[in-house]
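Methods — Computational structure assignment.
A single polypeptide chain was analysed. Its primary sequence is given first, followed by the predicted tertiary structure written as structure tokens.
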Amino acid sequence: MNKLLIAAAAASIIILGSCSKGAATAADPADPAPTAFAVATTTAQKGQISDYLAVSGDIVPASSVDAYPDIGGKVTSILVELGTRVQKDQALVEVDPSRPGMSYVPSQVKSPIAGMVVSIPVEVGGTVGPAVSVARIASTDSLELRCYVAERFVSKMKPGLPADLGLEAYPGRTFRAVVRELSPVLDPVSRTLEVKLAIRDAGGVLKSGMFAKVKIYTEEKSGVVVVPQEAIVRRLGESFAFVVVDDPSKPGSTIVRKRSVESGLLVDDRLEVTEGLAPGDQVVVRGQTLLDEGAAVNVVSRDGQASAAAK
């Protein structure tokens, strides 16, 4: 009986040893290649970025003058119409100063400047006095845009700042302007500052009264590194970007390196990077959510174009 027990125990040891050896052999194969994350990249560019303030305003004549009668009386005739171009000293309105029992020759109110009639606030039969304007004449040689800037942006405003104008009447066309004058005071009700811009290239197509959308450029930087805003990842208070580089251990493969960055101006989703990136860096803009330092990647799109690796 003892001999049978010893033989059974020896057989069990041999079987268990064989199983252990088989299990070890199954676990020996080399580890599989790490997963490569699909990403899209863009090239960090060295260029220019301009910060601007978006406002809106009205196009008005750069100068206008009111015409007043020399004597009070009744308006007997209006000699011009709105939009009429007049010369200096051209008659605009006739005023009869006659009184009951007295008859006078009608007095003519003449234009003080050459320009266009933009307002006639009187009617035939109405009574006017020396302090009542009978017409407004606007100089048509130059136009300006008047807009209002909120108090929090007043410190950025100064004469000479460039601006672009966009009008619904001319879609796709941009007109240039420059800040000409700032009001010395703020409006006490709206807390806004009146800003006047001289229009440089009206080209004879702009008209007084048009509404325009304005971009006043308050700051401009050249020779800076610019990337899309989505290239920057923020985790646990740290800002960084992932840059695609060749994997030194596997020729033909790519990995990412994590670069801490410092940013500057952000304008229309374009971000200035002051530290951390260099012109020409391939920066990940999509697919960076799961990435970390050294992660293997497969670039499927570069600068919006499908890469060769994805075709």
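Note: The first helix runs from residue 2 to 27.
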